[in-house]
Amino acid sequence: MFIKPDWPAPEGVIAFTTTKLGGVSKGDFESLNLSLNVGDDPLSVKKNRKLIEQELPRGTKIKWLQQEHGGVVTKADPSCPEKADALWTNYSGWACAIQTADCLPVLFCDIDSTCVAAAHVGWRGLLCDVLENLIMEVPANPTRMISWLGPRIGPEVFEIGEEVRDEISVWILNKGGSPEGFFKDHPKISKFYLADLARLAKFAVSVAGISKIYDSNCCSYSQPQLFFSHRRDLGNTGRMATLIALSS
After folding, report:
1. Cα separation, 41 vs 18, whole angstroms
2. Dihedral angle sign, alpha carbons of residues 77, 79, 82, 85
3. Angstrom distances, CA of residue 201 to CA of 12, 152, 173, 197
4. CB-based burial, 190-207: b 16+ in 10 Å, e otherwise
5. Which of 76, 142, 186, 241 matches a 20 to 30 Å C-alpha distance to 110?
């Protein structure tokens, strides 16, 4: 099962997010785990990735990243580094892929269908300006770009400590924003807070010049029948993938 963005992407842009359904993995990784780094059988993962390739135009290759919760941007090309948390391409034949299990996948395209991009966003990536770095590197004017936010941990369950809240607050202030509205006091744990990861990402994207932002409104943590969740499953889980490509 796949989720397709509800956004006004131009013809020629292909985008979707996988769920945990429809693959061959077993146990904690049942069934469509797409990560080779979580302890799943590599043969099962490779079969799952082959299933994903069938959703793309014939001959399209997927650029899989070694994600590090940082701000590095690369290109969907075999000659470019794999250690990054965001990537883009302006060529058909390559798909940008982001793996998540509570972090936020963010897709981008320009309205002229000349380039596409994707980012892996957690709170550490936000503080490394991964979204701004990607938007700056993509060869398109931000005013002609649109973005879409995929499944991620929701604001009712994304718990952070006081130190993380303070770090994020400084980041917001440095960008001319106000931390109010991004956090709520935790109802049960003292000096803990609930953070709105999607709202934080929308803030970063808008500061970088993109005003048209669309949202899946899906919470990975709260929908165990559909999504893997690192926090909910205490780390013993698989990864979904969010992909975007140009068809021609």
Report:
1. 19
2. negative
3. 26, 11, 14, 6
4. eeebbbbbbebbbbbbbb
5. 241
Structure tokens at 201: 């990402």
- 29-74 confidence digits (pLDDT tens): 999 999 999 999 999 999 999 999 999 999 999 999 999 999 999 9
List beta partners, residue 147.
108, 213
Whole-angstrom distance, CA of residue 49 vs CA of residue 166: 39
Let me know: does 149 contact 106? Beta carbons within 8 Å: yes
Q: Is the residue at 172 inside a domain?
A: no
Length of the chain as a residue count: 248
Helix (H) or strand (E) holding 207: helix 197-207
* 168 sits in which H/E element: helix 162-174
pLDDT in tens, 169-227: 999 999 999 999 999 999 999 999 999 999 999 999 999 999 999 999 999 999 999 99
**Closest-CA residue to 113 (of 244, 4, 3, 205):** 244
Omega within 30 of 0 (cis) for the link into 31: yes
**Domain enclosing residue 129, as ranges:** 2-154+213-246
Q: What pTM did the predictor assign? A: 0.98
Q: What span, in angstroms and rounded, lies between the C-alpha atoms of 118 and 123?
A: 16
Element (H, E) at 123: helix 123-127
Helical (H) or strand (E) element with 166: helix 162-174
State how far the Cα of 227 lies from the Cα of 89, in Å rounded to an integer: 27
Could you tell me if residue 149 is inside a domain? yes
With respect to residue 105, please indicate whether it lies within any of the assigned structural domains: yes
